[in-house]
TrEMBL record:
Keywords for the protein's UniProt record, in alphabetical order: Nucleotidyltransferase, RNA-directed DNA polymerase, Transferase
Source organism: Bacillus thuringiensis
Reverse transcriptase domain residues: 1-117
Cross-referenced InterPro entries: DNA/RNA_pol_sf, GrpII_Intron_Splice-Mob/Def, HNH_nuc, RT_dom
Superkingdom classification of source: Bacteria
Molecular function terms, GO-annotated: RNA-directed DNA polymerase activity
Record-given protein name: Group II intron reverse transcriptase/maturase
Pfam families in UniProt: RVT_1
Annotated coiled-coil segments of the chain: none
SMART domains: HNHc
Amino acid sequence: KKGTPQGGILSPLLSNIVLNDLDQWIASQWHYFETSYPYTNNANQKRAMKGTKLKQGFIVRYADDFKIMAKDFRTAQKWFFATKMYLKERLKLDISPEKSRIINLRKNKSEFLGYLLYVVPKRNKWVCNSRISNKKKKQIKLEIKKRIKAIQLSSTRKNVQLYNAYVLGLRNYFRYVTHVNIEMKQLAFNLSLVIFNRLKSVGKYEVPINAPPVFTKFFKNNYRTFKVCGIYLFPLADIQTATIWNYTQTQTPYNQKGRKIAKHIELNKLVLGEIKKLLTANIPNESIEYLDNRMARYSMLNGKCEILKEFLPASELHCHHYIPKGLGGTDEYENLRIIHKEIHRLIHMTNKQTIESYFQKHSLTVEQVKRINQYRRACNLEKIKQ
């Protein structure tokens, strides 16, 4: 048998390994083409190259699904046959005749990873626009209906949080669609009767009043939505278009400077992904105020531990009450601290041998120990001596 399992977790990784050669070859044909003349800047080089017979084109690829953008039909034909031949002769791969074709984006639309791509005239040039593909819209409708039905049948915080996690995932993925707000409003309108009829008996339909910080961070807070189990459902119609910033080529994991840039740029994306995980986390005995404020504080800190100052994935995160509930502490935002789970255990430890082993494991600095002792003092626990 040939190929990798459809939807398997290894499939994208294996595709990247095999098709990296294709990426480099396509880039060498135009974007990274080395000219014999040493041009002083890239703009002059590209201007000169446009007067040659070189194939101007750019590849966009995810796993084994890719598009090559070309300026005209003749150039697109060259790319089509050259790529087909390269894959066959160099990589021993065949393309799918049903899925592989040349599309004129001025006349037709092309689907890619749930996006529908096309171009429109603007100021004497053509600009790429995007919408959500019809296939993806059908999937979204079915999934929303399934999750709303689950809330109706079992009106629990867990089901509401699972719904919100799904809507937040849609927002994160499709926020760069050119007309995403129009698309989502249409979807919300088509689903409005189903949502209203199923939730009118289990929730309250209103404009959010004193919405939690996580809600106001991602939504404009002026759309009516249902409140079930004290939690507002994220409104589908309130998903807004986000600005796409240019990708910096200096961002790379392979050198120190590139890693610093990558870490800064990717942090917000990581935080969004971890917030989605926090939404689906099951903590049955905690209040809604605690759950909302935990996510709000995590978001405010950009996902960093308040003691180690390192990024925390949801699986390593503990939310500490600065003043314990047993000593009169509350679930208010100001009383919560986001810390690493092992540091949280260290704050509450009383066994000296265990404390020493944790110290050796984490190589804590004087400042970090000072902060831990501050937290222990608030818990009426003995100070740790380094």
